[in-house]
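Deliverable D2.4 — example input (structure tokens):
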């Protein structure tokens, strides 16, 4: 078992340094942002609702940061399973006195430990920076009308919960990309297909909304429903790593009454945590079952599971149809040419997906 662990560590040391560097870069960006904010505001004005540490934290750890983290996870999974997808190396690893279950468990645990470096740096650095924010806040909170929000947004428990939610969301994505390694034979192809599957629900809903906007009025109930689904999906992905929400509150500033968005902590974070944990457990069960049925590197077919092969072809074909619609909309084609282009892109997508599925078949 020690030899297997050493093999995994030799593979992951470089990507571990990347996660370490990304974590340090984010902490430095957070430090720089806090310094700039407080030097520019709190030395002149009383503490207001934007002075909470968690709001400063989420300014740096935003959705773009999370997307880049997902790309790093895809790179991590590709590095982890590169050797297992090679026929010669996979046969050699199969001859070792380790079961597929042990190999899979070591890989998943080593992967979790690898990206956990990022969260350790985030946690330690954030705690130290939070102490500086508390010192600055204490000087002006007595004259602030946002004292309750400052207390909520500066709690250590609030910060820990936010990082915990972010860790769970990251683990969910990591396990999903790991599951794709059992579905697709090629290690890079599985990572790319996994990323495309992650964004496909949002792509499909937005595509349907764009089509409806061509034939329906923006006030039509069906169009309104599609907009609601877009907001729901975006909100779900956003809520997977964010525990803050904005609440409109009337504020008297400079003699004028205005509405400002007050950041408030989401009290239902525990429900979101349970949902993410449940998704992780479901994916783990699928990985265990796929490991029993197909293992790693035992099949030369590009798509190992016949069920996923059908889902893959269907998904690519549907998305190809909407690609044609969106392309036609971008270049302002009329209805008939748009339909013809969509038919062509649908056929091309179907042929490409079928070709990918036939790779490796004898």
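Example output (designed residues):
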């Amino acid at each position: 078992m020690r030899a297997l662990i050493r093999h995994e560590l030799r593979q992951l040391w470089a990507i571990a340094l990347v996660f370490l560097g990304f974590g340090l870069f984010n902490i430095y960006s957070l430090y720089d942002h806090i310094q700039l904010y407080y030097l520019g505001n709190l030395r002149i004005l009383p503490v207001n609702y934007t002075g909470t540490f968690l709001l400063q934290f989420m300014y740096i750890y935003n959705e773009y940061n999370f997307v880049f983290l997902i790309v790093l996870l895809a790179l991590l999974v590709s590095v982890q399973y590169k050797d297992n997808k090679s026929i010669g190396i996979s046969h050699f690893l199969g001859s070792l006195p380790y079961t597929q279950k042990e190999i899979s468990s070591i890989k998943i645990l080593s992967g979790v430990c690898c990206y956990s470096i990022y969260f350790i740096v985030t946690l330690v650095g954030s705690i130290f920076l939070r102490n500086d924010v508390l010192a600055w806040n204490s000087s002006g909170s007595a004259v602030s009308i946002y004292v309750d929000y400052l207390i909520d947004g500066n709690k250590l428990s609030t910060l820990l919960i936010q990082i915990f939610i972010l860790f769970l969301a990251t683990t969910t994505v990591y396990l999903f990309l790991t599951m794709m390694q059992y579905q697709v034979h090629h290690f890079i192809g599985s990572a790319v297909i996994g990323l495309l599957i992650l964004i496909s629900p949002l792509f499909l809903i937005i595509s349907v909304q764009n089509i409806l906007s061509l034939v329906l009025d923006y006030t039509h109930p069906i169009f309104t429903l599609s907009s609601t689904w877009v907001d729901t999906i975006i909100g779900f992905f956003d809520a997977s790593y964010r525990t803050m929400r904005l609440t409109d509150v009337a504020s008297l500033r400079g003699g004028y009454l205005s509405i400002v968005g007050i950041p408030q902590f989401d009290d239902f974070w525990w429900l979101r945590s349970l949902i993410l944990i449940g998704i992780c457990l479901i994916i783990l069960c699928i990985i265990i079952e796929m490991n029993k049925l197909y293992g790693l590197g035992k099949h030369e077919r590009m798509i190992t599971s016949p069920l996923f092969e059908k889902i893959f072809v269907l998904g690519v074909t549907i998305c190809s149809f909407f690609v044609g619609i969106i392309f036609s909309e971008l270049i302002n084609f009329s209805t008939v040419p748009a339909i013809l282009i969509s038919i062509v892109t649908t056929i091309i997508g179907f042929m490409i997906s079928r070709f990918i599925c036939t790779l490796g078949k004898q």
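DSSP finds twelve helices and two strands in the chain.
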